[in-house]
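User: Please predict structures.

Assistant: First:
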Amino acid sequence: MAGSGVGRGGRKGGAAEVGSGAAVAAPGGGVAGTGGRHYHARNFMRDTMHVSDGVLFYHSGWAQPGIAGIAEVASTAYPDPTQFDAASPYYDPKATPAQPRWISVDVKALRKTRFLSPKELRSDPELAALRPLASGSRPAVLAGSPPERKRHDSCVLPS
């Protein structure tokens, strides 16, 4: 997820809370990216993401994972408020407002796309190296290069 205008990453629809269609329908097309509990994803959001970076909307925690839309980062990183809410399934008793453990960014869905499953992604040499396709990987945020984003767009958007 980078400020290059082309994009270099992806964002998961939080553990089945919001899909790309719901995100597109949300007022302003924006949703809070809360609930991620993966250190690599947290570090990527905190250290690498910037407002207006292009991202791929990736559903990793769903029954059928895959890329389902195109979005952009809509906020700078901030402490995920669900870590402090004891009623939330994402509550973390070790997190404090003074020392938060989990980070969120808001994303703005730009458009829903044709769904691309991991099987279909693996069959395309230009997309096969996407991080979520690695064995044992299920990050909330995936790194991807501008050529991968461009190739994804050509797979799902009308020419």
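Second:
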Amino acid sequence: MAFLAARPLHVANRLIAAVFAATFLLAGFAQVPALSLTDPRGDMTLAEARQYMLELINRDRASEGLPALALDDTACGAAQEHSDEMARWGYLSHWDLQGRKPDQRYCEAGGDGAVFENVYTNHNNPYLGARQNPLSARQLFARREVERAQAWFFNQQAPRDGHRRNILDRHHDRVGLGLSLASDRKYGSRITVAQEFVHRAGSISGLPAGLGAGNAPTLKGRLERGLALHSLQVCRESLPTPMTTADLKQTSSYSYPTASVVSYFPMSRRSGGVTVNRLDSGEEFSVDLSAGRSWHDGLYYIIVWVRDGSGGQPYIGSTRVVKMGASTLSAAAREGGRDSGS
């Protein structure tokens, strides 16, 4: 497939928008009636439950001829933080109480790939109001509950099968898993699960903690061997604001921002272009990100689209999320412009 640099920019953006739609037809979340939290085969610690869920995911992927995933420590940390918060506050959402979505949470935890989230609870009424419920002192998980959560994700039927398609994405190579158990005197025990599927097409460096007018960092990257840079897209959405449990109750599926600020293509003069150096070990690329007049305060997604040798559609190989605003620039200056993925 040829680079889209040869096409008018609006045509390229339409194709990218179509790929966005195909990538993010994810179901909002999963909830099923509660089961007994005791199992005759014995309860598992968090580490054991996480490992068992990984085995179930890889079993399901193997049934479709897909390679196994490995646990990702950074994604596990982001997943566990989100799962704990959902369990404590009795909500289920891809957003958290700070208003952050999975990409921002993963990046701020130090993630350097592209992340795609599934969330679940075993309770038939996941919204218990605004009060906080403590996590259980003993985080022990029944094997049957872990199996039930994975089965709920994987056994979905089209067209509402976003969780299943997330599990079976051939580009994923890692996953982060969070499982939490909280107790409520009125509603009983609740298990929450967050699955953060990751694929990482290469490495990215040079992106500061904050952007601002006149700030033109040079973004550099290296792709894995066999991959080619398709484009680099910058999208914007409003900065996150705190959300209540009532707000979170109204959420469902999530996606990348729909407002595309600029797209850079290899050898594209119109957009400034991306310099690409093709090596035996893989492609290297660099581009100057110049925040122009159309760059307003907000949350910016730096999205790296890549192609493999299969001839299929380009896919997202990595995503970085960075803020733009006066307070963000002050924080960035204090941090000395450190790479957001470090």
